[in-house]
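pasting input
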Amino acid sequence: MSQLSPYWLRDNCPCAECRDQRNGQKLFQITDLPDGLAIAARTESDGGLEVLWSDGHRSRYPLEWLEQQGGGDGRTEADKRPWTAADFRHGVPEASWEAYLADPAERAAVLGAVRRSGFAVLRGVPAVERQVLAVAGTFGYVRVTNYGELFDVRVEPDPNNLAFTSVAIAPHTDNPYRDPVPTLQLLHCLDNSAPGGDSGLVDGFKAAAVLRAEAPEDFAVLTRTPVPFVFRDRATELRADRPLIGVDPLGRIREVRFNNRSIGTLRGPAEELDAFYAAYRRFAAITLRPELRLEFRLDRGDCLIFDNVRLLHARTAFEQDGSRHLQGCYADLDSLTSTLAVLDRQAAALDELAGLFAGEGAGEYLGEAVTMAEHMLQAGALAEAAGAAPHLVAAALLHDVGHFQGALHGRDLMLGQDNRHSDTGARWLERWFGPEVTEPVRLHVAAKRYLCAVEPGYRAKLSEASEYTLRVQGGPMSAEQAAAFAALPGAADAVAVRRWDEQAKEADAGTPGFEHFRPLLAALMR
Amino acid sequence: MSQLSPYWLRDNCPCAECRDQRNGQKLFQITDLPDGLAIAARTESDGGLEVLWSDGHRSRYPLEWLEQQGGGDGRTEADKRPWTAADFRHGVPEASWEAYLADPAERAAVLGAVRRSGFAVLRGVPAVERQVLAVAGTFGYVRVTNYGELFDVRVEPDPNNLAFTSVAIAPHTDNPYRDPVPTLQLLHCLDNSAPGGDSGLVDGFKAAAVLRAEAPEDFAVLTRTPVPFVFRDRATELRADRPLIGVDPLGRIREVRFNNRSIGTLRGPAEELDAFYAAYRRFAAITLRPELRLEFRLDRGDCLIFDNVRLLHARTAFEQDGSRHLQGCYADLDSLTSTLAVLDRQAAALDELAGLFAGEGAGEYLGEAVTMAEHMLQAGALAEAAGAAPHLVAAALLHDVGHFQGALHGRDLMLGQDNRHSDTGARWLERWFGPEVTEPVRLHVAAKRYLCAVEPGYRAKLSEASEYTLRVQGGPMSAEQAAAFAALPGAADAVAVRRWDEQAKEADAGTPGFEHFRPLLAALMR
């Protein structure tokens, strides 16, 4: 193991004393650590690293955590796919609105395209007013600006912005005079029957990279010159002094602002202004190269989502006689990236669950005639056949997940070993599901003890194994316990799950596989 | 005149061909300018600089524009007032909610304090739920996050954030894992009857400046190390890699992110991690120095507004038995700064109007027995006495402003000289007032011609001078003209203004001065 930085290592201690186990936030201040903190003793094993600190604290770090690479937040050129128009000669990243809504994988593909390529198009979005806000709401939050919650792009009688005329607009980013600038833009086409008015996109990161390759000093000038962008109308006076090309502290392109219309008056010595204007003109010329400009047409119902700190957007002039109407709004990349990460996490969780059913689930189920996987799949199928709500189908399907060894790992172990499989399973599922799913799982053992107490003849129907575990689990409830149980939220759902549980022990019942339930589980994870 | 950069100068040409006169946006692309552009001839005079360009274009630049200094967008340390707690020993920047709403000067003072010192407190804000959103709405737009449109800061049973417990929270900025991070935060106190729970603020720019002075290399490390800030719950997975101290391309402090709880795992060689942690610990220790920490208590009805990319906020622990409930929301500095600029611009406009009344207004009024200022003040006072709506009082007060030479300047001249004083005045006033004020001004001459046409005996009552100008202006309207006039929006208001106009020619009528009308005008400018 390579050399370790002591304060870094200690700051990352995952123990319950150092870190809130519910939300992962640190519970100590960096200044709480003593001066001269050192590793007093360390033990390495396959499981990871155990450290005794000079102040007596003990930490354990999983090997996989120690070996993890850094990655990034996905916002610099390092995590983008730079493009020229030719890269989309077979089509642009797109999906139907219907598929986007129905299928998490399709949603992840669209949002992933925005993250990597800077844009995607949704087709068949209902062409009704304000719908663009609903599109933004599928992955984030609308950013309200001086243009309102949304803006209409069409010819206006007394425009406060050239966008609201019919003239051609050269490639630009929006709102550079705002700081923070809106990092995403959505344009939803309600009508485009006017001749002209085609859309153009240019990858500003690509253009900046071309500038860096062809004229490194010009690139440097544009990264180090704060440019005043201004906008002014009767109710507004905005100004932001930001470079045309923003780089992160490591020099990687992170943000492009480019809007010829709103560059205000830069001040400085003539030679600096000369250098800036030479670089600016060179960069502007690159953004106009035909091979960099992707042209396409937005038709009624299309909604373009794009990265407003990377892509420059443009439009050709159009004839005022025809009708062209887009509705737009702004949003932010951070929420889009978060939504995408949660979708990826959910897909990984479903893969993990599928793996449990295929792997450990194939094992014996405590002396029953079915495997654990068959038992749970049967329970899910019985719930589905009974017309139960999706959350109950999921609870029935997953009720015994606490039996799986694979589920007992990681941070759950740190909360203290718990051998009650209903609790363990529910807590493990909480990472992905709400209480409507996890509570019936948590209570399904109690539900058996409850039913045996209140329902004559119920106990007699238990399987041999279930009768055995009933006794281990405490036997039928007392009248008092039963009343308390019945008062719990989720008790009725737990009882329903329990009944399917008892029935789901038929050998060779021919139930559907785990994949059958994946869409239902995915929908519940939202 | 010093040496001038040609492309810079040309890019700033103010002529109507180069710049949309309505919104100030540029009408040409920087790439439209020819290579080798040069000044062919230049003429300097007191009025400014006239340039003939090598491509034949002509530009005129006012001297005052040429001599203007750069300034900035107000966001770096250059435009801030760094502070320690002692700077507020006589009290914090504050205002009553009532005064803030009623008085633009008070509003400007509060917003100016947020811009310069990073915070202000409004007292007596109605202690009702969701009121914090209304406070944000007075200067900007709410930024919605994963915490919702607003968030409740009180003890919660299953918190996803330590803020929602009763423990002490060390100085920090919020949401560093967002990019763009919300640049403003509002905290509105609905109840604070719990012992403890006091608020603390630390000027992060000051703390960063102290670090720079005491340990320049540590300061440099913190500006050049992107730190992963992370937040994760069931629906959210946010990450932003940003330095603790963000500087602009000129090295000036522009943004501080500091949140011990949400710093994720930095990766890199051990020596870099050692250097970062040494700098981070030193900076953290500075933020905890008592002399830097301003302590105060938010009471029911107080609303704290603060700069979330500059100030660190903290709270002491409180007893869970007592009741403490804040509602908070996020917003952004750009809109606050815009609102402040518009308020300043309006105050300057009112000063300019006041100057006109005091200066040129004291001159003769086309042969009447009153000065121009007296005439307009009388008209305003008559409208007020008649119980007219504020916009009509304003229109009556300002109806002849087009007579003032002072109003005929700047960009209005560039729109073409217009000697019809009603049009000129209305257009001049459009910079500050809506059509409800400017339309009656624009139509008040037409209204005389209308009244003389449709109202028997009206013409006979005109003053001698007014009878003279009636003929110059075209005489009474034809029946057709009168019908067209009556159909205009604003015609009725213009007629009302006209009647006060005719009456407002009494010598020694003893009208109130301009200052009497200032609050009414200020309210209409919003």
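fyi Chain B touches chain A through 101 residues (CB under 8 Å).
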